[in-house]
Amino acid sequence: MIDRIPLSKQLADELCRQISTGRFRPGDRLPPIQEMAADYAVSVSSLREALRSLEIVGVLSVKHGKGVYVSDRVQLNDECVSTMLAINSLKLKTVYEARMVVEVGAIPLAVKGRPIQISIRCAPC
């Protein structure tokens, strides 16, 4: 059986390679999503999925209305990239499920006007 690698994972791999080789450095703003999608000849939705997965693991930071930035704290090497992407592909569904639980659970507090404070710590690569 041949495993197919999802396009979004291939894009995430490529972006990590570009970060680890210095094309994009910590704090850099990535090109606009439409421009990147055209450069890679992929759909905007596939690129967004790749960017979202890299945001979840802390490689990228999305500032709504301002763009996508390489996280200031990211330090990638080949081993770290492989490990991070392996964890990402195995755990992404779990992360989404956890977000749904937290976000849905926070709705009653938000409706009542109570402050919501959530702290999640992830181990760096």
Give a description of the structure.
- The chain is mainly α.
- 55% of the residues lie in helices and 6% in strands.
- The protein has four helices and two strands; from the N terminus they run αααββα.
- The protein has helices spanning 7-20, 33-40, 44-56, 78-111; strands at residues 60-63, 67-70.
- It has a two-stranded antiparallel sheet.
- Strand 1 (60-63) and strand 2 (67-70) form a beta hairpin.
- Helix 1 crosses helix 3, helix 1 packs across helix 4 and helix 2 packs across helix 3.
- The mean pLDDT is 77.
Task: Supply the key terms.
125 residues; globular; mainly alpha
Short description:
This protein has 125 residues and is mainly alpha-helical.
Distance between the termini: 31 Å
Beta-strand percent range: 5-15%
- What coarse outline follows from CA principal-axis ratios? globular
For the report, how would you describe the main beta sheet? 2 strands, antiparallel
